[in-house]
Amino acid sequence: MLRLYNSLTKKVEEFKPIDEKKVGIYTCGPTVYLFQHIGNFRSFATADFLIRALRANGLKTRFVMNITDVGHMTDDQVGGGDMGEDKIEKAAAREGKSVWEVAKFYTDTFLKDYELLNLTPADKLCKATDHIREQIDLIKQIEEKGFTYQINDGIYFDTSKLKNYGQLSSLDEIKEGARVEKNDEKKNPRDFALWKFSPVGERRQMEWKSPWGVGFPGWHIECSAMSMKYLGISFDIHTGGVDHKEIHHPNEIAQSKAVTGKNLANFWIHTAFMQVAGDKMSKSLGNTYTLYDLEKEGYEPLALRYLYLQTHYRQEMNFTYAALDGAQNALRRLWNDVSRWEDPSASSGQVQKDFDEYEKAFFEAVNDDLNMSKALAVMWVLVKSDNPTGAKSRLLFKMDEVLGLDIEKKSAELKKQAGLVPDHIREMLEERESLRKDKRYNLADQMRRKIEKLGYVVEDTKKGAKARKK
């Protein structure tokens, strides 16, 4: 039984799907004006763990993720996300490219990194610019319901007309001129743009005709329009970073509820921020590390995934290179250990009474609001147990369907590499075996050290000595 913390109700609840046949999940994807950093990917990893957990519970999923390639303004934490410059347009000016080139480049880079982290691909990846018509149609419906008004720079949503606006956020903590920039034309500080007009006398690279004038959609409307198109007017789960909890997600809910009268999603899952060495992650501090930055330093992409597993998604995570070193060492040790295990079929007839306990403990942790660190600890208890390795591997590979550490694939690659021992190393192994049979142990030990100096580890097994690459 999967239990999840619901940001909407502020408590852990048993998850019950709307439709038993398929769970609808929407994740706020990237704004493609910049490389996504490791804090961004932590949120995407949470969505991945969730999808894997749902599938492990026998549920089918319909996973939708958006690509924001227009309308996301630079001051996204003030003025309802309506202030400043369009992030894509600003990036295009900075890089001397068209907005379309910028969006494509950063989308492609995101998807490459996404795959390297072994994250579940979306069943539907939808771009904001491919759904302008749907966004205009939704704004029309909101207008017909009486929730809009027009000011000089666009069409705005009147939040005062929606009962219980801002359930996800801390409205009492938000003051105009602090987190919300003052705009004398807006009726309420938290009103937000549905459609922005192109500046007078200026032609944007991305702009479209609408019933209200030439312009472009506000940031929030895309998620409401696309999620409802692909998942229905009310679906199961919406995920994203905790930074969306105050403005973006409450506005999504408002837009949809104004039209349908229903909750957009039943569960809202938010991933906490990531710090770097105790500091806030920010461009000014130069610590917005990307996956490419880590790869340049020699880290496996999946080492970062392993690191994500070690901290609960609702707790702030502190990234350090020392922690990443530990994660990489643990992951490589895991792959190496399993590479020396027997094939799963080798002990197919053996059943260990404690295997059921391992499996139960693992999935209880996963189902306890995605307690992945506890699940990881249970996995290590299994790995270190003295049960037959072939039997252990069967359960381990099942666990890894949730963990996503590519254990079966990586261990098989290492096992194959270990089998490719050069002839001169094999000859040295055979000579060492002869010395051992003759009880010339000192010379045998010397031969072992020679082999190790050449980059190979010698292992004595019941079937004789073997060598493998370090």
TL;DR of this structure?
This protein has helices spanning 38-56, 87-95, 99-116, 132-144, 221-231, 248-260, 291-296, 301-309, 321-339, 355-367, 372-384, 389-403, 407-419, 423-437, 441-453; strands at residues 3-6, 11-14, 23-27, 61-67, 73-75, 83-86, 124-127, 148-151, 154-157, 192-197, 215-217, 235-241, 265-271, 274-276, 279-280, 317-319, 456-461, 464-469.
Pairing-aware structural class of the strands and helices? alpha/beta
Q: If strands are numbered along the chain, what order do they take across the biggest sheet? A: 7-4-3-12-13
Give start-end ranges of low-pLDDT stretches. Answer: 174-180
Per CATH, the superfamily of the largest domain is HUPs
Number of strands: 18
- The CATH class of the largest domain is Alpha Beta
CATH topology of the largest domain: Rossmann fold
Output the radius of gyration.
27 Å
Report on the architecture of this protein.
It is a single chain. This protein has about 475 residues and is α/β, with parallel strands linked by helices. The strands form 6 sheets. Strands 7-4-3-12-13 form a 5-stranded parallel sheet, with helices on both faces. Helix 2 crosses helix 3, helix 9 packs across helix 13 and helix 10 packs parallel to helix 12. The radius of gyration is 27 Å and the shape is elongated. About 40% of the residues are buried. Strand 12, helix 6 and strand 13 form a beta-alpha-beta unit.
